[in-house]
Specification:
By secondary structure, the protein is α/β, with parallel strands linked by helices. The chain is built from eleven helices and eight strands. Helix 3 crosses helix 4 and helix 4 crosses helix 8. The protein starts with a helix and ends in a 5-residue tail after the last helix. Bound molecules: 2-acetamido-2-deoxy-beta-D-glucopyranose (3 copies). The site of one 2-acetamido-2-deoxy-beta-D-glucopyranose has 2 residues, from loops.
């Protein structure tokens, strides 16, 4: 090989290497973001959030899953998990670098079910925005599903085979009807490891494969009751609040929450002055607690 040939070879190799690096960077960009809506809403409600994301991270592919919208959001949650899984999985597969999930309200429980049962998910940030993670015990104006029933009576409907066909009953958590709650073995009781499930060990491993869990909620939410449920807190039998770290399933690390926390991969954000339906349209919330987790 002559000196000239050597020189051109070096140049070719250098150009190749630069090109490879360049393509790697440009195709990498931002990871796709998938949004899962909540009870009684659908993709239309997330236009503003979508705009926030594409403005701060240009080129991000944002998909708001168009499934179980509005009244169909009352379908039972395990069924919804299967539906959303079918929609989300192809997006995951084409995203070699992984994806981020933003899940609002009831959608947070759908996402938890999805992550627990998807053995090969590639979710990096799991952002749960005002989601009833430890259950719901409040019948608010927005949630006036049972106009003739007091909240203390709702268990009579929810903790039955029929009741469990309605999404809300899958996470209705009446602190005065603990035994019935556990016996019905609702979606939430299974997910939180309060009732035994055949696959709970694998679910836990799958949960631990996410990179970061981001929890967002606040006292003026007005729908999630108690609002601390959005941060894995809940009522005891006297309706006093028990914080996440004092929950039995946290202490026993049943579904991986304590491990995520000790790994430094659990982030909590609390905001006052945000109504339930305003979370995903609030720029302050987006800028401070979501933006940095979408890279
Ligand atoms: C446990 O997981 C397997 C494999 O995904 C599934 O076929 C089975 O139905 C699951 N068991 C229950 C009780 O959901
Ligand atoms: C947005 O969030 C900020 C921070 O908590 C809050 O003070 C403000 O009231 C919220 N705005 C709306 C319209 O929800
Ligand atoms: C977004 O948050 C950063 C700090 O995290 C702050 O410096 C910046 O001013 C905020 N942007 C707006 C438009 O509020």
């Amino acid at each position: 090989m002559t000196r000239a040939e050597m020189k051109s070879l070096v140049v070719i190799l250098f150009v190749r290497l630069t090109l490879t690096l360049f393509t790697a960077c440009s195709t990498e960009g931002y990871k796709p973001v998938i949004i899962v809506h909540g009870l009684f809403d659908g993709p239309k409600q997330f236009e503003i959030l979508k705009r926030f994301i594409t403005k701060s991270h240009p080129g991000t592919i944002v998909s708001v899953i168009d499934l179980y919208n509005h009244l169909f959001s009352l379908e039972p949650l395990w069924k919804q998990v299967e539906g959303f899984k079918n929609a989300v999985y192809p997006i995951m597969q084409s995203a070699t670098d992984g994806i981020h999930l933003i899940c609002f309200s009831q959608g947070g429980l759908v996402c938890r079910g999805l992550i627990a049962t998807l053995d090969n998910h590639n979710v990096h940030s799991l952002i749960l925005l005002s989601s009833p993670l430890a259950g719901q015990y409040g019948d608010t104006a927005y949630l006036k599903l049972f106009p003739k029933l007091l909240k203390s009576e709702i268990y009579r409907f929810c903790y039955t085979r029929w009741g469990q066909r309605v999404s809300i009953c899958n996470y209705w958590n009446d602190p005065h009807q603990r035994e019935r709650y556990l016996k019905t073995g609702s979606f939430l009781a299974q997910l939180n490891g309060e009732t035994a499930h055949q696959n709970s060990t694998r679910w836990r491993e799958n949960v631990l494969r996410i990179k970061t869990l981001i929890l967002i909620g606040g006292p003026d939410d007005g729908v999630i009751t108690p609002w601390q449920s959005s941060l894995f807190g809940f009522y005891d039998k006297n309706e006093n609040i028990v914080g996440m770290k004092d929950m039995d399933w946290y202490i026993k690390d049943v579904f991986g929450l304590k491990t995520l926390h000790s790994r430094g991969d659990l982030k909590e954000y609390i905001y006052s002055g945000v109504l339930h339906t305003k979370w995903h349209a609030n720029y302050t919330v987006y800028n401070e607690s979501i933006d940095e987790w979408l890279t």
